[in-house]
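Course assignment 3, question 2. Fill in each field.
Student: A.L.
Task: Predict the tertiary structure for the chain below.
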Amino acid sequence: ALGSDPEALPLLRERLADAAPTVRVAAVRMLAGDPGSRVLLRERLVDRAGTVRAAAVYAVMSDPESWGLLRERLQDDDDLGPSGRRTGEVIRAAAVTALARDPSAKPLLLERLADPAPTVRAAAVYALARDEASRALVRGALVDKASGVRAAAAHALCTTHAAARGVALASLEEDARWAPAFRAARGQPLGGRGPLSGGGAPLGGAESV
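Answer field:
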């Protein structure tokens, strides 16, 4: 409620320096839509608490003046938050998503395709999918060791590059993790291969990249 009250803005800005990380997180979230608080929100990108840095990344991701600091967050460590969740990978994934709008950040996003965290690799796949020069690397994510990254690569290619749709879908159709769902959706036995129910074309088609 305080976030929508202009008279409460000074109080919320003070809470950005509160001793409790949970309070700082709440203040960051409430001030996220306030242009007058952007400078203060940028300061939280280097907060000592990972949960606060994560909240700050989301709060400033649409602000081009924050891109320099967001680049630093691509190297954030996987420190454990109060809940035991690794905040570093959340921060890095959010920073990747934000920096997709920054053309000069492309080399840094390419590096994130090899990030140890699947969530970050998936974010990098989406961030780079529209870049024709990076498409071969995005296709490489179709064989990533993490099923979520493979699915992200297939979805990203299907939605950004029509010619790659067949290859992307075919890769998931043969994927040990996703094949059962694909075949169930097609209305065929798990051991069978046949046309889509209703007479449609087979998944994968004859398209090529």
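Instructor remarks: The first helix runs from residue 9 to 15. The chain has twelve helices and no strands.
Grade: pending
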